[in-house]
Amino acid sequence: MRSRYTEHDQEHYERPRRRTRPRTKDRPSYDDAVDGLVVTVDRGRFTLLVEDRRVMAMKSRPLGRKGVVVGDRVRVVGDVSGDEGTLARIVEVHERSTVLRRTADDDDPVERVVVANASQLVVVAALADPEPRPRLIDRALVAAYDAGMQPVLLLTKADLADPETLLSTYRSLGVPYLVTQRGADLTEVRELLADRVSVLVGHSGVGKSTLVNALVPDAHREVGHVNAVTGRGRHTSTSVWMLALPGGGWIVDTPGIRSFGLAHVRPERLIEAFPDLDEMTEECPRGCSHGTEEPECGLDAARESGAADPIRIDSFRRLLDARERSAEDH
Ligand code: ZN
């Protein structure tokens, strides 16, 4: 899987710079650096886990404008005691295995990396109250496929509505799912999340916060602790944070993210997530988006010949269209 991300990753950390001087003179060596994991980012300050300690850190100058995001595995120097008032320095960001991105807003088309190194995107949606919003789910799926992450549907409030209507929309895409309801046993959810890094997304009211609190009983304390460390009061601007699951694995909660802007997603990247369909596009004209409007798309030939499931083609094209729609259009 790794080649899929690195090939397209805009932020190659490992790409060698053109050098005019020997490397040894360009770069100090950080023999005393230790490994850390970025668990929150708040206005240029990073909370890292170094062994079991929470360590505040900032980026060091050699990193320049390179982003450091939640989930990044970094090398850090300086005071890594985690004592109050200390500030360590991040000197290196390890290569990322996955990169979840979003285009922030319509009026802010800058592409941002949201989370690094997560393997699953868990889309939490209520079956009722509030009504599910398939377009938003589609957008999250596109973001997951673009990131090289496995999307999973976690449907809540099954006591209020039959999941079948919504599931029928996603079956042909082969998206795995779990169905839960209030007070239900969370064993299956825990198994789904165990030993992985999972990003949870979902609108308010779908039960995501309840779920996070059930999975990480001291989530409030953890996040509160983060705020105490940054010294910025209870209402932190942090919109993404990473929490350790008691049984192993991590969840990344995204309370500050309401939708995924997808302006950065390219069709050729999306179809790679569907190898069986991708195979049918080898004869497509150059630059074919594989959308409905394309005059000579291989997907239409595959549909006519019966080589591909028409419902799957339609579902793929629905995702392709989700990319085009405005983030606010839901
Ligand atoms: Zn095509």
Could you tell me the strand content as a percent range?
15-25%
- What structural category do the secondary elements indicate? alpha/beta
* Unreliable spans: 1-17, 226-237
Oligomer type: single chain
Helix content: 25-40%
Instruction: Please report the first level of CATH classification, the CATH class of the largest domain.
Output: Alpha Beta
Coarse morphology: globular
Largest sheet: 6 strands, mixed
CATH superfamily of the largest domain: P-loop containing nucleotide triphosphate hydrolases
| Known CATH architecture of the largest domain | 3-Layer(aba) Sandwich
Query: Average pLDDT value?
Result: 85
**Heterogens:** zinc ion
Number of domains: 3
Radius of gyration: 21 Å
Compute the number of strand runs. Answer: 13
Total helix count?
A: 11
What pattern of helices and strands is seen along the backbone? Answer: HHEEEEEEEEHEHEHEHHEEHHHH
Say what the CATH topology of the largest domain is.
Rossmann fold
Strand order of the largest sheet: 10-9-8-11-13-12
Q: How far apart are the termini?
A: 32 Å
